[in-house]
Backbone:
């Protein structure tokens, strides 16, 4: 049975890459939001965005942060990471910069978004606990295949880490 997973990513530069990763059968991802739907949500203000994220994460076991060149330290990415972690969901990052976008281009590797979040009651960064995988490969197909072959295990591991196992 597929693990129910929430995908967090920076929409504008990485939606094509994210759609590739979300198509794997090893995990069950949240439904994509169209540009118009997302614009409608964001036009309703911050509370509407928080409610949408909270509703999308409800019933999920994990959050997968798809890390592109501009993902780290974005307000809503940070909110999604913190919300998932505080609600005891597994959290894992996957760098997607080597996957091609719709224009058949790669992007620069971004910073680790977990470096920008401090664990409650400590001075440790979330990156000291949460793993961020940078798939090897010299072309997009190799990277895609590597993610496809490993994403299920990475999500399962993130859930075990969060549960203290």
Residues:
């Amino acid at each position: 049975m597929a693990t129910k997973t929430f995908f967090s990513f920076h929409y504008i530069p990485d939606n094509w890459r994210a759609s590739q990763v979300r198509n794997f059968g090893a995990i069950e991802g949240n439904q994509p939001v169209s540009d118009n739907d997302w614009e409608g949500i964001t036009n309703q203000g911050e509370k509407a965005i928080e409610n949408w994220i909270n509703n999308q994460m409800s019933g999920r076991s994990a959050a997968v942060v798809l890390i592109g060149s501009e993902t780290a330290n974005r307000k809503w990415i940070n909110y999604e990471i913190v919300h998932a972690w505080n609600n005891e969901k597994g959290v894992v990052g996957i760098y997607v910069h080597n996957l091609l976008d719709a224009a058949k281009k790669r992007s620069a590797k971004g910073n680790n978004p977990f470096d920008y979040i401090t664990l409650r009651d400590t001075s440790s960064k979330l990156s000291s606990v949460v793993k961020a995988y940078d798939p090897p490969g010299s072309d997009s197909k190799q990277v895609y295949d590597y993610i496809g072959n490993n994403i299920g295990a990475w999500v399962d591991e993130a859930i075990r880490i969060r549960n203290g196992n």
Observations:
- The mean pLDDT is 87.
- The two ends are 21 Å apart (CA to CA).
